[in-house]
Design brief:
Length: 173
C-alpha cells in the first residue's frame, strides 16, 4: 500500500506523479504509456471543442473529494460550468479513467465505485490498447459498450453531448 499521512498534509502538498488519498493512505497513480497518453490528448481535445457550447468544464487530473477521508484524481472529470468554482466537493457529470497495462484492475474498480458514490452521473473506463469502453452509472454496474461507441450524455437544461469514442480512437492514429 501507500504512505500514511493526515488529510490536512495531503491537501497542502502537490505530488508528482499524482496521488490519491484513501482512508489515510497516499496512493500514487500509475504512469501512463504512450497509447494512454495519446488517448488522453485526443479525449481532452474532443471534450474541449464542445465544452463552451454546452457550458461544461473539462478538468484533467482534478482532485475530487469523495468523503472527508477519500480524494480521487480521475484522468478526466467533466463539470457543469455553473457549479460554483468547480470545487473538489462538487460531483462531476462524468469521469473517464484510462486503463493502463501497469495498473491493477482492483484499483480501477475502486476509483469507479468511489466516483459513483460521490454522485457522478456516469463513469467510463477506456482501454486504448483494446480500443474498448466500459461504462457505469449509479443504476447500472460497469459493462462493456458495443460498437458504435457513441454515448449520448444528457446535460441538464442544455442539450446532449455525444461522446464519440470511435472518433476519439481514430484521432489517436
Amino acid at each position: 500500500m501507500g504512505k500514511s499521512m493526515p488529510v490536512s498534509e495531503y491537501l497542502r502538498r502537490s505530488f508528482e506523479p499524482h496521488c490519491e488519498y484513501v482512508d489515510g493512505e497516499l496512493l500514487p497513480r500509475q504512469p501512463k504509456d504512450d497509447e494512454c497518453s495519446s488517448l488522453f490528448a485526443a479525449l481532452v481535445g474532443a471534450l474541449s471543442r464542445r465544452d463552451r457550447a454546452l457550458g461544461l468544464r473539462v478538468r484533467p487530473s482534478r482532485h475530487i473529494r469523495i468523503s472527508p477521508t477519500r480524494y480521487r484524481v480521475p484522468d478526466v472529470a467533466v463539470f457543469l460550468d455553473s457549479d460554483p468554482q468547480v470545487a473538489a466537493t462538487v460531483a462531476p457529470l462524468f469521469t473517464v479513467e484510462i486503463a493502463s497495462r501497469s495498473e491493477a484492475w482492483s484499483g480501477v474498480m475502486g476509483r469507479i465505485s468511489d466516483h459513483l458514490a460521490m454522485g457522478v452521473g456516469m463513469a467510463f473506463v477506456v482501454d486504448p490498447h483494446a480500443r474498448s469502453v466500459l461504462a457505469a452509472t449509479p443504476g447500472q454496474s460497469l459493462h462493456q459498450l458495443t460498437p458504435p461507441l457513441k454515448v449520448p450524455i444528457d446535460i441538464p437544461n442544455r442539450g446532449t453531448l455525444e461522446l464519440d469514442f470511435d472518433q476519439i480512437f481514430a484521432e489517436m492514429d
